[in-house]
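From: lab user (bench 3)
To: helpdesk
Subject: output format question, protein + nicotinamide-adenine-dinucleotide

Hello, I'm new to running complex predictions and I'm not sure whether the block I got back is the full result or only part of it. Here's what I submitted:
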Amino acid sequence: MKAYSNQNVLVTGGLGFIGSNLALRLAELGAQVTVIDPCIPGCGGNPANLHGSPFPIHVVPCDIGAPDLPTALLRDADVVFNLAGEVSHMASIQEPERDLAINTVAQLRFLQRLAHHHPGVRVVFAGTRQVYGVPDYLPVDESHPIHPVDFNGVHKYAATMYHHMLSNSGQLDACVLRLTNVYGPHLSLHTPGQGVLAAFLRKLSLGERLEILGDGRQLRDPVYVDDVVDAFLLAGAAATLPSRSYNIGGPQALELRQIAILASELAGVDAPVYREFSAEQKSIDIGSYWADFSRIQRELGWSPATPFAAGIVKSLDHYRIRMAAHA
Ligand SMILES: NC(=O)c1ccc[n+]([C@@H]2O[C@H](COP(=O)([O-])OP(=O)(O)OC[C@H]3O[C@@H](n4cnc5c(N)ncnc54)[C@H](O)[C@@H]3O)[C@@H](O)[C@H]2O)c1
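Helpdesk reply: Thanks, we reran it on our side. This is the complete output you should expect:
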């Protein structure tokens, strides 16, 4: 990780959940960090995510697709971590064109300008497991067919392909991390559509019982945000990238009901209750998911280090301290 000392690093979406954790770690490692993020309404960004950083982080409140994004930022970057995006699958069903604008059009404009002003620069993009849709088999590897079930998956896949296409033609040196459900500090608990773990953490932080949709037998492999940050750092610093796509998964595949029961126990909250999916929720449910992350383990030496129970305890501590501070 010495590779980042005094490097100019751009983090798009760096006021958001994963981006802010990454920006803080990069600053700690001695990088000169610039965050590009206008805090798009409805996304999970929050300027407070970078407050109190002991190291300077420069924030440019600009859309990555805006024509007035300063060219010098692109030209001077040694590495670009591209995490700008909208995560909500439900929002993409309700407002597909908004999702298209954020996840695809803005990315296209940004990547074209980046390739023009800084050809060959390393880019690490936050992709999503949602591109696989309902898995044909488990665990899901990178060769799994692509058949997303919502607009968010389609739009994120288009952005994924921009990174691949521009790399195949030598204009960028990009790779895409296809993330499973990420959880941890800075996840925006009060923004709708941030996923099941945000919903769980919000209720547990308030001492409320969890609700499980369906029978709770769907598998998930939650990954703690510090481990995801490690994956971005490794991909950003690798001398060469043997592959362009890497699955990022958690250390264990757990049933949602196991996740809910364990998290409730750790939070000291009564056992979860079960309820039916709404028709809209059912339409974007992918059933079970579990990532095969052996490619990034083999090629870049990454694996998730944080067991689920330890990650939940750290997350609950974070949110409870914040809530107590605002009480
Ligand atoms: N959180 C997860 O579990 C998860 C899972 C799979 C993929 N991802 C991907 O990881 C990325 C980051 O997710 P997150 O959970 O940190 O989301 P987040 O909503 O917390 O943060 C995203 C940030 O991107 C910013 N942003 C959006 N569009 C922008 C634009 N055009 N220009 C500049 N900034 C823009 C938003 O303002 C926000 O601060 C997203 O692209 C998402 O698709 C996240």
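A quick orientation on your result: The chain has eleven helices and 13 strands. Let us know if anything else is unclear.
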